């Protein structure tokens, strides 16, 4: 379902690399104007987000070894393709790529740079442990993520957050690195800026995680409208007590929810998601 940890991991890595390169090349000046620093921060911040977005689908496939279904090899694969195609039509979208990956834990995720260039992948564990009605609800949840344009929205949010993280880090680093003569120590500026970007980036992730939890509720609601709330509730009930062992950088992409809500939770708890659906 989700793709935030994968997105964040790639985004932060790109962000730091670009920042280090611009600093070494002297493009990351410690005594520039506020406007210049803000423009530079926006370029670096949005570059990381856009690169992460463009790489999201290929990295997701590689991370779990997802095998895209081109020609169905059995009745189950044919049913998966047909179900996703029908749901895509209801959203008036191009049918996403459909993939299966081998894992005993029930899981699924959707990713992609645009609504019409996306991927939905399900684990063999999910297919083996859920009824078709429940799998249909999970697929509808993933389709709602695509239809809601969550990845593009996330890119914009992350780009804005990155911009202010870099801007504040550079402004504060510029003040800290000044000596009594008003001159800046480039070494001190560089080190302070890097440390502050990591610290501010962690704090800013609270905003991104809040968005992640809200979009889960919206995707659940979208699935309920597509296939009915009872099917979505049944699918979430089925997940209780199940574990998810996606690679760490993809934890937020899976269908499993947190045990409880917190500031750094990528998902609302299953109980809260079920309760929200029961109110519909």
Give the averaged pLDDT, no decimals. 83
Low-pLDDT windows of residues: none
Q: If helices are DSSP runs of H or I spanning 4 or more residues, what is the number of helices?
A: 9
* Alpha-carbon Rg, integer: 21 Å
The assigned structural class equals alpha+beta
- Succession of helices and strands: HHEHEEEHHHHHH
How many strands?
A: 4
Instruction: Give the overall shape, derived from the CA principal axes.
Output: elongated
Question: Which range does the strand content fall in?
Answer: 5-15%
Task: Give me the side-by-side strand order of the main sheet.
Answer: 1-2-4-3
Percentage of residues assigned to helices: 55-70%
Profile the largest sheet: 4 strands, mixed
**Span from first to last CA?**
21 Å
For the record, the count of structural domains works out to 1
């Amino acid at each position: 379902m989700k793709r935030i940890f994968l997105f964040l991991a790639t985004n932060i890595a790109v962000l730091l690399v670009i920042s280090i390169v611009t600093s070494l090349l002297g493009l990351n000046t410690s005594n520039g104007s506020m406007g210049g620093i803000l423009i530079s921060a926006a370029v670096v911040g949005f570059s990381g987000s856009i690169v992460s977005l463009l790489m999201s689908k290929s990295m997701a496939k590689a991370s779990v070894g997802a095998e895209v279904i081109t020609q169905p090899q059995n009745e189950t694969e044919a049913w998966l393709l047909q179900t996703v195609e029908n749901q895509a039509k209801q959203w008036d979208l191009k049918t996403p790529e459909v993939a299966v990956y081998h894992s005993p834990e029930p899981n699924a995720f959707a990713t992609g740079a645009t609504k019409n260039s996306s991927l939905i992948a399900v684990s063999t564990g999910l297919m083996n442990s859920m009824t078709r009605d429940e799998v249909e609800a999970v697929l509808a949840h993933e389709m709602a993520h695509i239809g809601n344009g969550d990845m593009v929205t996330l890119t914009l949010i992350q780009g804005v957050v990155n911009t202010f993280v870099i801007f504040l880090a550079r402004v504060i680093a510029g003040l800290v690195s000044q000596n009594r003569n008003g001159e800046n120590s480039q070494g001190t500026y560089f080190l302070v800026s890097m440390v502050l970007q990591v610290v501010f980036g962690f704090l800013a992730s609270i905003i991104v995680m809040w968005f992640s939890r809200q979009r889960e509720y919206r995707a659940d609601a979208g699935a309920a409208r597509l296939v009915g709330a009872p099917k979505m509730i049944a699918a979430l009930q089925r997940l209780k007590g199940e574990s998810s062992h996606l690679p760490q950088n993809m934890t937020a992409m899976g269908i499993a929810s947190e045990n409880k809500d917190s500031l750094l939770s990528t998902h609302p708890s299953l109980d809260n998601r079920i309760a929200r659906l029961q109110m519909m």
